[in-house]
Specification:
single chain; alpha/beta; five-stranded parallel β-sheet; three-stranded mixed β-sheet; 8 strands; 52% helix; 12% strand; globular
Length: 299
């Protein structure tokens, strides 16, 4: 039987997850601070209704917002849903947050009889829409059981990383360290190649088949070649996520200099006004500094 599910946060990932829940037969509500994606989702079969009115009827609430502050606001803010949810319902928290925050949210939800699954996601907007995400999850056995139907709908792989919240967010921090560094390194290598007469097109053709490749290179470098910075994942995500990585590293007395350098490039991109562009736009920082013209620029 389908669950009564709400997806809160209809960005590039959340919208696809809501579509996947709908496709799996769940009675799905979609909520966002913007009206347009909510209206669009309802035309696709999303159930109408106000979040405050339906919160007490939900089996699962998937919270797919930007950060810890937004997650806490959704759950425990002025119109927070956690106190309204029935006992035994589950919150599936998908934002990149510090592990300590995930543990705090689990404790506060548990005090209300609501399960909390620490469940950061990876895979991008295309996999979100096809129900093929990877989920780095941690929580009680009861939380996993309550979340199982929506995880089946949205994920290809669910890694069960612990029986309490925290390890999921820790693993996501590791993933984001690598992902952010790989995007910045791709941009650096692509623009370095341009100084040596290697076109972006040739860079993708050759390096994607060589040892220097990465998933991020193969996924993001074609955006630069096409001159298309429609955001699948925004530049603005990385100052937040790499900032979380560095905060965790600092608390562990761990030096992460490569992460710190990548972070500065994303901050520079945001400072250039590129925050809402695809994160491949970090290449524009290198291009500007080297006097290079990327595909689609200056046309």
């Amino acid at each position: 039987m389908g669950q009564r599910t709400a997806v809160i946060g209809l960005g590039s990932m959340g919208y696809g997850m809501a579509q996947s829940c709908l496709a799996a037969g769940h009675e799905t509500y979609g909520f966002d601070v913007a009206d347009a994606p909510m209206a669009r989702f309802r035309t696709e079969g999303g159930v109408p209704g106000a979040l405050a009115d339906v919160a007490g009827q939900l089996d699962a609430a998937m919270v797919v917002v930007l950060n810890a502050a937004q997650t806490e606001s959704v759950l425990f803010g002025e119109n927070g849903i956690a106190p309204l949810m029935r006992k035994g319902a589950v919150v599936v928290a998908c934002a990149t947050v510090p592990p300590a925050f995930a543990k705090e949210m689990e404790a506060r939800c548990s005090a209300l009889g609501v399960h909390y699954l620490d469940a950061p996601i990876s895979g991008g907007s295309i996999k979100a829409a096809s129900g093929q995400l990877s989920v780095m999850a941690a929580g009680t056995a009861e939380a996993f059981a309550a979340a199982h139907p929506v995880l089946e709908a949205t994920a290809e792989t669910v890694f069960e990383l612990g029986d309490t919240a925290g390890p999921g967010s820790a693993m996501k921090a590791v993933n984001q360290l690598l992902a952010g560094v790989h995007i910045a390194a791709m941009a650096e290598a692509l623009t370095f190649g341009m100084t040596q007469g290697v076109t972006p097109e040739k860079f993708v053709e050759v390096i994607s088949k060589c040892a220097g490749s990465s998933w991020m290179l193969e996924n993001r470098a074609p955006h630069i070649v096409a001159g298309d910075y429609t955001p699948h994942s925004q530049v603005n995500i990385w100052p937040k996520d790499l900032g979380i990585v560095l905060d965790i590293a600092k608390s562990a007395n761990f030096s992460a200099p490569i992460t710190a350098t990548a972070l500065q490039q994303f901050i520079a991109a945001a400072g250039m006004g590129l925050g809402h562009e695809d994160d491949a736009a970090v290449a524009k920082v290198y291009a500007r500094n080297a006097g290079l013209t990327l595909p689609g620029e200056g046309e």
